[in-house]
Give the backbone structure.
Amino acid sequence: MMSFLFYLVVCSFFVSRCHAGCAEVDSQTEAVAGEGFLLGCISCKRREEVSARATVDWHFKPLQEDDFRHIFHYDHPAAAVLHEDFSDRLEWQGTLNGDVQIGAVYIQNVTFNDTGTYRCTFHRTLFLPLQLENVVVEKEVELTVVAVANRELTAVISEIVMYVLIVVLQLWLIIVMVHCYKKIWDDHEAREARKALKAQGSLLGSKDNCDGVQAE
């Protein structure tokens, strides 16, 4: 779910509905069984100012098979699931107009049978001033389905760094406390020494006074 949200944020940031800009972001490639997964596919137009229309087709080749199956077709505003294995499980998450640049689809309730190669195909017609130009763009996503999500390396490194910082801060705190305690103890010893010297001086003074009285 987090990868799905991340992908949507990236897409919405780089590819606006008004085509203000476009950046091609690779799809995630690892899904967790029983959860949802966003199959990402972005194809940017070479010239943003040229109007166009595009349709998107998704094909799927299961693991250890040779042939692709046609599983999904989008021709704005109609979206159609074309294979029974994906019936009621595919949802269009791409551009919601005819000039499609985001061709993402969301798979609900991923199963281990969904492991394999997914091919996203854009059939785009560019409306140039003098003629029409047809462009075909194909992209593939190698999807692996796992029982439990693998932690990303950056997350592991961040956690290690966090624990190291915690240990370092604790050691630093202990050192500071020992230093402060030693300083307080030294000050206490110095005060006690001064009190002892002062008391000794007072006793010596009293003794001298007593000796003077006896002499008289």
DSSP finds two helices and nine strands in the chain.
